[in-house]
Amino acid sequence: MSSSNTQGSIKAIFYAFGANGGIAVCKFVAAFFTGSGAMMAEAIHSLADCTNQIFLLIGIREAKRAPDQSHPMGYARVVYFWAMMVALLLFFMGGAFSPELPASFARPIAGLSGLSRTRLLHAAQCNPKWPYGFPDRQIRR
Predict the structure, then answer these.
(1) How far is residue 59 from each of residues 78, 79, 83, 137, measured CA to CA in Å?
(2) What is the distance between the alpha carbons of residues 15 and 13, in angstroms, rounded to a whole number?
(3) Nearest C-alpha neighbor of 21 from the set 42, 47, 54, 55
């Protein structure tokens, strides 16, 4: 992986991390105020996406290590290990959490109007496409 491609990848990962982090915060707030189990599952999904970006950054950093006695060909292939960790995290986080969260959480908070709940849900589902303009440009290079 050339240096410019690596720098572009790192930028794209940070953009995605920021976007997913912001979306996760919105979804956690909406889940808290609406008591929606489905929104809580969505928030956890967004948090798992943030963890994926961290794993990818670790993989890129590790792949840059210079060859040594135990790895004479270098560490470039370690990226595939971290990509596998991302896939496993998605698989297990997706299976571990479902919209069927405990009934005590799923009860809405008294006093929050239907309109307020709707606004919170709309804010939490803010358009996730806008922050991905940079990664799209990187792919099209």
Answers:
(1) 6, 5, 8, 22
(2) 5
(3) 47
Distance separating alpha carbons of residues 90 and 84, to the nearest angstrom? 10
CA distance 71 to 63: 11
- The distance between the two most distant Cα atoms of the chain, rounded to a whole number of Å, is 66
Q: Which two tokens stand for residue 53?
A: 């970006």
Task: State pLDDT tens for residues 54-78.
Answer: 988 998 998 888 888 888 888 888 8
Question: How does 81-100 read in b/e, with b if 16+ C-beta sit within 10 Å?
Answer: ebeebbeebeeebeeebeee
Nearest-angstrom CA–CA distance, 14 and 124: 20
Question: Is 76 in a helix, a strand, or coil?
Answer: coil
Neighbours of 56 (CB within 10 A): 21
List, for residues 81-125, the tens digit of each pLDDT value. 888 888 888 777 766 665 554 544 555 555 555 556 666 666 655
C-beta of residue 101 within 8 angstroms of C-beta of residue 88:
no
